[in-house]
């Protein structure tokens, strides 16, 4: 196995990241997981069948203990997950937890359609057949459907010898807090404490806010210079990643965020507001991103009234969710929508857009 600490120090030496004392303090815990996996063979996957049959629930003796890394937003947890997956020399997958659970729910639906009595087992077995290390980013449980199956899903994965490393903004005891039928979820918290080492990344520095809010975040007019400035911010936030299209599921349908990387999303105005999207879609978007970059917001008027209404709804959603906004636009917020139906109501949106430019605004502020 490689070491996360070696990759981290290499990134520091290359000037790609700045050394953070809190991040340095958790590197030994990440290295420990990889060292434990290297020191022990992969467990006999047949042991999982004992769990299915209700015979014991202890992990295989050779299973390495996983890690639950929690702390505030922007502390570098996602970056550390990237390094963890890169350092691993066993089959590993690094995936956003919400995306993973969407895949699991889709697999459960297929199992139901086949008539499987135990729908969790085949889905978990399929995952375990492909990976030995699962690196989850941003574990959060807000959906009752996820809450009701995640405990058994994890138990089967662990019994199959899959090692789980995950990040979260919450201490385990705050997962699914105030959720419906939460008492049924509590055994999963116990499972986390038993099978995963819980470590806090306690840093006073919000690296994402430092990058995005340390300078200009609203660029006008939306010309080539604005585009270059937006590209530079994107490269800084994502470590130079191009980003991939992100499909966001909403009530049995989906829409696509054109670019997503390291908790940041990027889209043109028309991709988000020129399509028939509504409040549910924008709320789902806020659960996916911490920073949203919108390119080329036009002047708004009666000629694009429907798009303007969607833009207002979008800004309301990201404002309430404290998603950091970086945008290029035809003009300053107060000058975007000066006449026509809806211009008076837009004054509140303009005020929010102005507030959101403040350096201290956003999640974790």
TrEMBL record:
This is AFG1 family ATPase. It comes from the Bacteria. PANTHER family: AFG1-LIKE ATPASE, ATPASE N2B. Transmembrane segments: none annotated. Keywords: ATP-binding, Nucleotide-binding. InterPro entries: ATPase_AFG1-like (IPR005654), P-loop_NTPase (IPR027417). The keyword ATP-binding applies.
């Amino acid at each position: 196995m490689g070491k996360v600490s070696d990759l981290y120090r290499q990134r520091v030496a290359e000037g790609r990241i700045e050394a953070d004392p809190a991040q340095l303090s958790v590197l030994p815990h990440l290295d420990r997981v990889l060292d434990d996996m290297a020191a022990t063979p992969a467990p006999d996957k047949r042991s999982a069948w004992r769990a299915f049959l209700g015979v014991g629930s202890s992990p295989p003796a050779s299973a390495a203990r996983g890690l639950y890394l929690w702390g505030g937003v922007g502390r570098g947890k996602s970056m550390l997950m990237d390094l963890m997956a890169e350092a691993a020399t066993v089959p590993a997958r690094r995936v956003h937890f919400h995306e993973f659970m969407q895949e699991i729910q889709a697999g459960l639906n297929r199992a139901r359609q086949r008539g499987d009595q135990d729908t969790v087992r085949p889905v978990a077995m399929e995952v375990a057949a492909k990976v030995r290390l699962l690196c989850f980013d941003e574990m959060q449980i807000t959906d009752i459907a996820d809450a009701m199956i995640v405990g058994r899903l994890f138990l089967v994965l662990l019994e199959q010898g899959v090692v789980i490393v995950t990040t979260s903004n919450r201490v385990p005891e705050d997962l699914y807090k105030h959720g419906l039928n939460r008492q049924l979820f509590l055994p999963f918290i116990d499972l986390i404490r038993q099978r995963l080492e819980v470590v806090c990344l306690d840093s006073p520095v919000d690296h994402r806010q430092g990058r995005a809010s340390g300078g200009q975040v609203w660029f006008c007019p939306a010309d080539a210079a604005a585009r270059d400035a937006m590209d530079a911010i994107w490269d800084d936030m994502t470590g130079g990643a191009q980003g991939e299209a992100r499909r966001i599921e909403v009530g049995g349908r989906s829409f696509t965020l054109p670019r997503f990387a390291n908790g940041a999303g990027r889209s043109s105005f028309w991709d988000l507001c020129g399509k028939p999207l509504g409040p549910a879609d924008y709320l789902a978007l806020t659960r996916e991103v911490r920073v949203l970059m919108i390119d080329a917001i036009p002047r708004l008027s009666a000629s694009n009234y429907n798009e303007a209404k969607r833009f207002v709804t979008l800004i309301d959603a990201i404002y309430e969710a404290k998603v950091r906004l970086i945008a290029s636009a035809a003009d300053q917020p107060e000058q975007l929508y000066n006449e026509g139906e809806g211009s008076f109501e837009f004054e509140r949106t303009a005020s929010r857009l102005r507030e959101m430019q403040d350096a201290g605004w956003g999640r974790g502020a």
